[in-house]
UniProtKB/TrEMBL annotation:
InterPro entries: HTH_HxlR, WH-like_DNA-bd_sf, WH_DNA-bd_sf. Keywords: DNA-binding, Transcription, Transcription regulation. Residues 12-109 form the HTH hxlR-type domain. The keyword Transcription applies. This is Transcriptional regulator. Gene3D superfamilies: Winged helix-like DNA-binding domain superfamily/Winged helix DNA-binding domain.
Length: 109
């Protein structure tokens, strides 16, 4: 194994990527958006059953602030909001698919 004595973990690409996707539900939300392309808030809530409304809202805001998802609001009553992956978010999909493949190959059973 090669050690890089000059590597500052806090400034490396790995740490930056991790800061964008860390959290209990971020990767699950990104993967749901990848699988469904466009999804509404309540659909996400149904898929991610144990997530609270507050946690879902905060996680979606964080992903939107990091420009990983796009929030589209329709001016109607009742309000309609849809979420989809941005180009930046789509660029994370190969990483998530590799994690999914790794999990399938290494899960017990």
């Amino acid at each position: 194994m090669i050690k890089d004595e000059n590597c500052n973990f806090n400034e490396c690409g790995f740490n930056y990527t991790l800061s964008l996707i860390e959290g209990k539900y971020k990767m699950s939300i990104l993967y749901c958006l990848f699988r469904n392309q466009v999804i509404r808030y309540n659909e996400l809530k149904r898929i991610l059953k144990p997530i609270s409304f507050k946690t879902l809202t905060n996680t979606l805001r964080s992903l939107e602030n990091d420009k990983l998802i796009i929030r589209k609001e329709y001016p109607q009553i009742p309000p309609k909001v849809e979420y989809s992956l941005s180009k930046r978010g789509q660029s994370l999909i190969p990483i998530l698919e590799a994690m999914c493949e790794w999990g399938e190959n290494h899960k017990k059973g």
